[in-house]
Amino acid sequence: MPIKIPDQLPASNVLRNENIFVMSETRAATQEIRPLKVLILNLMPKKIETETQFLRLLSNSPLQVDVELLRIDDRPSKNTPTEHLDTFYRQFETIKDRNFDGLIITGAPLGLVQFEDVIYWEHLQTIMNWANKHVTSTLYVCWAAQAGLKLLFDLPKKTRKEKLSGVYHHTIQHQYHPLLRGFDDSFLAPHSRYADFSPEYLESHTDLDILATSDVAGVYLAATKDKRNVFVTGHPEYDSHTLHGEYVRDLGEGMEPAIPVNYYPNNNPDNKPIASWRSHGHLLFANWLNYCVYQQTPYDLEHFSADAFTTDE
Question: Looking at residue 176, what DSSP letter applies?
Answer without folding.
Answer: T
